[in-house]
Request: fold
Amino acid sequence: MRMYARAIVIVGILTASMLAAAPQGAKIPSQAAAFLGTWTVTMTAPDEMKGDKVTVRIWDKNGSVAASIQTRQEGPVIEATGVLLDADMLIFTVSHQGKPPMRENGAPIWATFTLTLDGDSLKLAQTLERSETIKRGVGRRQ
Reply:
C-alpha cells in the first residue's frame, strides 16, 4: 500500500512539474470542446466526502483552455495554474502559486484534477499534496 501511495505522489509531482513548465493553458483542440462548461460534481469517494459538491468550470480563455474549481459552496473559486489535454483526459493543476492557492491546515498545497467524460457525465479524480487518497466524483453540466 505504501508503494502505491508513493507512486501516486510521484505521478502527481511529475504531472505538476510538466504542467508548470508548459505554457499557461493548451490551445483549444476540437476534443476539448466537450469539456467546456460548468459542471456540478458529487463526490463519491472516500466515504467521508460522499455527497460533497464541487463546481468545475472549463472555458475558452483567449484561445486557450482555462479551468477553475470551487470545492465548497462557500469556498473561493480557485483558477488552475496549468491545463493539459491528453487524448480523452483534461488535466489541470493548482500550484502553490494559485490565486488563491488551495490550502490544507493553513499551508498552500498543490492539487491535480483529472477529468474524463462518460456520455453526459464528467468523472473527476483529485490528488492533493501530502495525501495518499484519490478523491473521486461524478458530475453533470449545469
Remarks:
- The chain is about 15% helix and 45% strand.
